[in-house]
Amino acid sequence: MSADEARQMFQGMLISPPPVSGADRISALPDNVLQDILSLLTAQEAVRTCVLARSWRHLWRSITSLRILSPDTAWYDILSDDPEPARDLWKFVDNLLNLRDKRTELQTLDIKFGQFSQEDLPYVSLWIRSAVMCKVSSLTFHHIGPYLCLDSLHIASRHLRTVHLASVALMKDSFVDFASCPALEDFKLHECKICFLGISSTSLKHLSITGCIFCHYSHSRLHVSAPSLASLKLDALIGIAPIFENMLLLEMACVSLGNQGADFCCNDFMSGILCRADNACPTCADYPGDYVLLAAISSARHLELISKPENFIFARDLEHRPIFSNVKTLLLNEYWCEAPGCGRLARVLKNSPVLEKLTLELFSEGPDHKIEMKGSYRTMEGPPAISEHLKIVEVKCNAVDEKILEVLKFLRAFNIRFGSE
Q1: What SS3 class is residue 122?
Q2: Which residues, 6 or more positions from 381, have their beta carbon under 8 angstroms from its beta carbon?
Q3: Which of helix, strand or coil describes residue 233?
Q4: Is it true that the peptide bond before 288 is cis, omega within 30 degrees of 0?
Q5: Distance between CA 176 and CA 23 in Å, rounded?
Q6: What is the per-residue pLDDT across 49-99, written as a single tens digit (0 to 9) for each?
Q7: Which tops the pLDDT comparison, 304 or 198?
Q8: Residue 239 Rama label (left phi>0; alpha psi -120 to 50; beta)
Q9: Strands 65-69, 243-244: pairing kind
Q10: How many CA atoms are closer than 13 Å to the CA of 104, on its beta-carbon side?
């Protein structure tokens, strides 16, 4: 299909005659209401409405949300070598962005597609630039299939508030600097390959990085500077964990460090003896000597800290004795209750002066747990060893074995009682 033919797809469609019987109540609605309805459809479906009636012919040009869904998002289509579906999508999106009413600001551009290759990258860059020119406020770019490599992410817009990227590779060895996006508040990366060196934004409030691969061939951690951050989510990371500057406005942080990362001690893995960062262990040598995560998120009011046993980031960060001065609700897993004596949990409890609720999910990832026990802290004479504000303690597990009994014994030492105790 040529570009002219693609343009005719919009301009040359026949107008359907009015219905033979019955009133067309939908067409009687105000244009702004109809445009809101069209914004709920995919862009392809919205454009097709131009044939419904003469009054519908140009409505699609002024819709504020464009959701472009490639027809080849099934895995069997992604593996196909046929380039035609992708080429048809190029032409459709090009005409869609060129022919829409430029006087109408674009609130949302959501693109989800497969079968694209590096040869298609100029089209992607063009679409992003076109969306920015249309004053887009929310940009979502989801590639289904192998990573699509973006050389850089240089966006300048005072309207952009949200950027969500999935299955793309950011390969430039530089910082993603959002200084030219003063309104940006939400940045989400899902199943991406991250090979740039840092993220910098003074306006960013919400950051989510899930299922991403971090390149560490240069032994450089991703450096994040986002002083206005209110919420942080890190989950299922592959490679070395990013390092954060202090975030004093942080309200919530959910951090889960799995066993697919590179932050584990070779000596511990081979001999069970944890070495220090200045030892010859090649993986421990990647630890920066200062904190990576805990001190940066210590100002949060709500914390979820999950880790596999072999990951050393939280254990190393604890050596710097962070104070969780604002945390009120805290969720931890069995990583913090390891022998001897639940030392990690003890240190966190002693350094959380206003803690109100503690949840321990032990050897049970949930959300359904076979056993749930609820306890409470009872004040003792003399200076308290842990927060006087602690009202609720929950222990969730699948079975009460020796490991669980050891944790309960530890909690009793802090005068935390369960049930009829």
Answers
A1: helix
A2: none
A3: strand
A4: no
A5: 54
A6: 999 888 899 999 999 999 988 765 543 344 445 556 667 777 888 889 889
A7: 304
A8: left
A9: unpaired
A10: 21
